[in-house]
Amino acid sequence: MNSVHERYTVSPYLIFFMVQPMLFGLEFLSMSIKPIQLAGQDAWFPLFICAFIAHIVMYMIYQILNQNQADLIQIHQQFFGKWVGGGLNMIFITYFMLVSIYQIRLFIEIIQVWIFPDLETWPVALVLLALTYYMVSGGFRVIVGICMLSFLNQIFFLSMFFTFPYLHFNNLTPIMDHSLMDFIKATKELSFSYRGMEFLLFCYTFIKAPQKSQKWSQWAIISMTILYLVEIFFSLLLFKPEQLPTEIWPALSKYKFVQFPFIERFEFIGSSAMILRIFPIVCLSTWSSGRIMKSMFSVKQRTMLPFFLVLMFIAVCCVPNRKSIEGIQTWISMTGFCILYVYIPFLYILNAIKMKVRRTA
Amino acid sequence: MKRLLLVLTSCLLLTACTKQQILDRSTLFLVSALDNAPNGQLEVTLGLTKFKAGDPGSVSDEFFSKVGHTSSGITDLMNMQLVRPINPGKLSVVLFGKDKAAHGLSQELDVILRNAQYSRRMYLAVVDGEAKKLLEGNFSSGEEKGLFLYNLFDTNTRKGLIPSRNLHQFEYSLVGKGIDPFLPLLKMQNGKVAITGMALFKDDRYVVTINEKQARIMKLLMNQTKRGIFEAKLGEGSYVSIDNTGSKVNYRIYKNSRYPSVMINLVIEGKVRDSREVTYPNQELRRIEESIKKDIRTSGLELINLLKEKEIDPLGLGDFVRSKTRNWSEEAWKEMYPSLNVRLLVTVHLTETGVKK
Amino acid sequence: MITVPQIWNELKESSDFVCLQFETQTEPYFIGYFKSLTDPEVLDQRIMASLSMEPETPLDDLYPLIRVADKEISSDLSQIHNKLLRGYVAIQHGLHHPKCILVNAVLSKSRDVTIPEIEFNVEGSKEAFVESLDTNLNLIRKRIPISALRVKEIIVGSVSKSRVAICYMDGVTNDQYVNTCIQRLENIQFDMIPDITVIQQLIEDNSNSIFPQMLGTERTDRASWGLTLGQVCIFVDGSPTAMLGPVSLGSFFTSYEDYFLPWIIGSIMRLIRIISVVFSVFASAIYVAILTYHGHGISNIFLPTIISSRIDVPFSPVIEVLIMELSIELLREAGARLPSKIGQTIGIVGGIVLGTAAVQAALTSNFLLIIVALSAMASFTMPVFQMSNVIRIIRFPFIIAAQIWGLLGIYICAIAVITHLLRLTSLGMPYLVPFYPLRHKGLFDTLIRPPLSKFYQRPGFLRTKHPIRFDKKHASKKKDIDE
């Protein structure tokens, strides 16, 4: 067991607040388009399938971690030796970097489209990454604190109330009017939304009594499923399926219905509040990358951190437009799919075999 | 120290990064009118607001029009005539001339929908005649015309007198299958602007107009309402008016024959408001109910027949049938629609007669 | 090796040092003291009187004759030196005798206990700490007359030699906090300690933060309440303020009057205070953001009001806001530096005359004037003065951020502040507790002020050794109807 001082660990229940924002990235804003295009009013069904699979994957993650009592960095090196394990760790670093680059660039794009059309990419990226430095250098507990803060973002779901006069319940029927193939495709599209659990593999040793935290992780998935369900239902009720593909971020378009006595537009409030959603992911991925580097090459996390941030800064500035952002998205969704639904089950089976061998030996 | 310097310099660098749109240094417009111009061009009229210092009540406006190909290009050109740059974000009412509407609106809608600053709750309307002419008329007794029109639509949709139709709803019924859009129709009447009915669209083209009474019936047939007064003729020169305290409508589909038929079931609850000839309406509730029922039923069926004849479906019957049918196809529905059997069942309950018997 | 005569010679350099030679038949007595520090009454009636009655006695025999409780015989030269400088009288028999009697004749001049001036309450006691450490300890001891109240004294400051007292409840307060306090106090390298705020800055976890990490109070009830809950309380001789620690951000929002009012009223007051702080920090920044970038967000009904109040103002919103905010700060500062009666006049002249004139001269919009005045007032609802300073200052970064990137700037600034708060600790305790780390039992006394009968536990985040305050079962027994 990796020895992490108790002062730096967090209580198991905080894992709920950590896993939830991990799943709840900015891709949430457009997650309802493709499933509804494919499965129409039945999009909730693939969502349930997907949630079920996510629960199983989460169970596998905990089985692997609990039986080894170590984080994935060490498991890799134990299972595959120094070189192959190290290579796998490096793949994870690349993946994490890409995820945070994607999140930051997507956020900047939203700002550029919704609020400041003439805003340059680099100043925002600079400020966001500077803030990330401040957060990550505060340590794991501060990062989890930021995750908890981002939980406040859920308040914006209340804005859905303003769309009530425009809902059409006709859009929910007829039920089950799609073929099996449509469901499978929609399930695959939705699996992208459950990406983010893999971070748990790297912060396992920072949880106080980690076995107890599985309950909280599963609850985080359940809460996310509920949020996805709300989002899909409201998209169905509010828009015609023909209308939806023309939107880029239907979740943000919903803010266009909000009205208060003083303030008539809510888009600029809602879309800049998305900033809360990017920090948990960006912080945790830079932190995990730093951890990996630390345990592999024994470099200080504090020295690696600016290096990663500068790398990310350059990369973010190099992504010019919508099309290239979508390019990154397909790349991430492919890698994420492989990691979550192929690699983790594989690791689980490998681990089970190893455990059996050890027991008989 | 070094770090502080870095922060300060980056702050300075950042200041110049975004374009400011200081509210009182830009020109706003709340209403714009789009009309057809010769050679397939477009005439855009904007009601640019003028504020007076220290007096929120006196907002006036000035109308600028220009002809061009795209409305955003025209708006940009108008900046040449203005001291303060135009900030288009506040647009709340868009009026279309009747000719423009008849030529199709989807191109103009795209501009409005694409812009992130515009609200989806913006009101759209068709003007009987030229929209520019209507705006130039003096109808608001000094009040800013954009605000006036916005409030006109806002109060009337809130009161439930006309079916509400904003940008989102228009797009919804335009893009959606088995449903056609409609917009309120504005007209100058004796120097005042009034909503005189509804302009019904087939796809994005204006087709036919219905009057206020039909518009109200349409409202009843579309969704629940809680307001509105109905008049009914009882006999020779005797009229009763009923206050609608809550009407419910639901559609039902019957698929027993080869073609489906639709039944619309309308239940109205009301109170007697005004009884001109009948002294004791309490005793004649039955008769009043019957006569109102008959009245609404005939005009309702008339309206539905008109819609079928014109092959337009603002009620969304097609959408309703889709939600009850597996593998619904739009083409088949369109063929069937003119001969669709629609039945209308009206029930009226009068609950109170005011404080008098 | 220095001797007693050398001390006499060194101290004689100051003209207020007196070294009397009291001739006897054998060797003379030397009596040294600072006349600026000693009480002449004690000197004359207790010391001189007993000397002149029995002039021939040796030193050890003289000792019991001096009728003063605080006295000792010492040959420790540095102690003699220090005590002389604190107002003791040293008596030596014969110039080369190594021993001295040290008699306490300290002349302590301190003002009387008065009503609190900064943390004024309508309800509750009107008793505030004074500059004398002994009086302050007396006030605390009177409120907590049990043996568990422990006081540790340390001398801090190479020049001022200030007495610092650390009070805590034995068996309640976590030892870790007491030890941290003592250790940090002992490590202080500073010459002059004029006030407790200097100590505060020297022992805080992060001295670069504008947020106070210790809570200064002049109220005796607040200090004793904090001690009972398990906080450490520090006093410094010469400062009328006690310092409580560890504290969380929430403690700065609680006024002790909350506990004196019925709990529902107390909770509402607390909520009003929190809302007013949020308003105070964000109001003018949001004004800048909306008018500069998000003008289309204002509703149609409200639009003419705002624009017509601002259309003649020549400045951009941020300049306008900065001018107004700075002039409010100026008024406040001027009012604070002047005697209270003139201060009031300044308030009237500044507030009413300047404000009206500024609007009439179209230098500012009256809408902004309302916002700025309200947010200035809101910042004064903070019950702890240190925090209301923070609230006033922290507005400016928000205003500048709003100018740069509108609402996004405000969000970024807010996240930076929250990250800072997440990183802060007070004596090692997280500053945002009980919100983060979330302690649901600790949430009890933050946003609302619960009824006192529900206060049977000490706040868990203070990690007290004895978390129960009183027996809950005993306190609240539910009765049936008509029983």
TrEMBL record, chain A:
<keyword id="KW-0472">Membrane</keyword>
<dbReference type="Pfam" id="PF03845">
    <property type="entry name" value="Spore_permease"/>
</dbReference>
<feature type="transmembrane region" description="Helical">
    <location>
        <begin position="43"/>
        <end position="62"/>
    </location>
</feature>
<feature type="transmembrane region" description="Helical">
    <location>
        <begin position="151"/>
        <end position="169"/>
    </location>
</feature>
<feature type="transmembrane region" description="Helical">
    <location>
        <begin position="83"/>
        <end position="104"/>
    </location>
</feature>
<feature type="transmembrane region" description="Helical">
    <location>
        <begin position="124"/>
        <end position="144"/>
    </location>
</feature>
<keyword id="KW-0309">Germination</keyword>
<keyword id="KW-0813">Transport</keyword>
<feature type="transmembrane region" description="Helical">
    <location>
        <begin position="12"/>
        <end position="31"/>
    </location>
</feature>
<feature type="transmembrane region" description="Helical">
    <location>
        <begin position="219"/>
        <end position="239"/>
    </location>
</feature>
<keyword id="KW-1133">Transmembrane helix</keyword>
<dbReference type="GO" id="GO:0009847">
    <property type="term" value="P:spore germination"/>
</dbReference>
<protein>
    <submittedName>
        <fullName>Spore germination protein (Amino acid permease)</fullName>
    </submittedName>
</protein>
<feature type="transmembrane region" description="Helical">
    <location>
        <begin position="304"/>
        <end position="322"/>
    </location>
</feature>
<keyword id="KW-0812">Transmembrane</keyword>
Automatic annotation (TrEMBL), chain B:
<dbReference type="InterPro" id="IPR046953">
    <property type="entry name" value="Spore_GerAC-like_C"/>
</dbReference>
<keyword id="KW-0309">Germination</keyword>
<dbReference type="Pfam" id="PF25198">
    <property type="entry name" value="Spore_GerAC_N"/>
</dbReference>
<dbReference type="InterPro" id="IPR057336">
    <property type="entry name" value="GerAC_N"/>
</dbReference>
<dbReference type="Pfam" id="PF05504">
    <property type="entry name" value="Spore_GerAC"/>
</dbReference>
<feature type="domain" description="Spore germination GerAC-like C-terminal">
    <location>
        <begin position="196"/>
        <end position="354"/>
    </location>
</feature>
<protein>
    <submittedName>
        <fullName>Spore germination protein</fullName>
    </submittedName>
</protein>
<keyword id="KW-0732">Signal</keyword>
<keyword id="KW-0564">Palmitate</keyword>
<comment type="similarity">
    <text>Belongs to the GerABKC lipoprotein family.</text>
</comment>
<dbReference type="InterPro" id="IPR038501">
    <property type="entry name" value="Spore_GerAC_C_sf"/>
</dbReference>
<dbReference type="GO" id="GO:0016020">
    <property type="term" value="C:membrane"/>
</dbReference>
<feature type="domain" description="Spore germination protein N-terminal">
    <location>
        <begin position="20"/>
        <end position="187"/>
    </location>
</feature>
<dbReference type="InterPro" id="IPR008844">
    <property type="entry name" value="Spore_GerAC-like"/>
</dbReference>
<keyword id="KW-0472">Membrane</keyword>
TrEMBL record, chain C:
<keyword id="KW-0472">Membrane</keyword>
<dbReference type="GO" id="GO:0009847">
    <property type="term" value="P:spore germination"/>
</dbReference>
<keyword id="KW-1133">Transmembrane helix</keyword>
<feature type="transmembrane region" description="Helical">
    <location>
        <begin position="343"/>
        <end position="361"/>
    </location>
</feature>
<dbReference type="InterPro" id="IPR004995">
    <property type="entry name" value="Spore_Ger"/>
</dbReference>
<comment type="similarity">
    <text>Belongs to the GerABKA family.</text>
</comment>
<feature type="transmembrane region" description="Helical">
    <location>
        <begin position="367"/>
        <end position="385"/>
    </location>
</feature>
<keyword id="KW-0812">Transmembrane</keyword>
<dbReference type="Pfam" id="PF03323">
    <property type="entry name" value="GerA"/>
</dbReference>
<protein>
    <recommendedName>
        <fullName>Spore germination protein</fullName>
    </recommendedName>
</protein>
<feature type="transmembrane region" description="Helical">
    <location>
        <begin position="271"/>
        <end position="293"/>
    </location>
</feature>
<dbReference type="GO" id="GO:0016020">
    <property type="term" value="C:membrane"/>
</dbReference>
<feature type="transmembrane region" description="Helical">
    <location>
        <begin position="397"/>
        <end position="422"/>
    </location>
</feature>
<dbReference type="InterPro" id="IPR050768">
    <property type="entry name" value="UPF0353/GerABKA_families"/>
</dbReference>
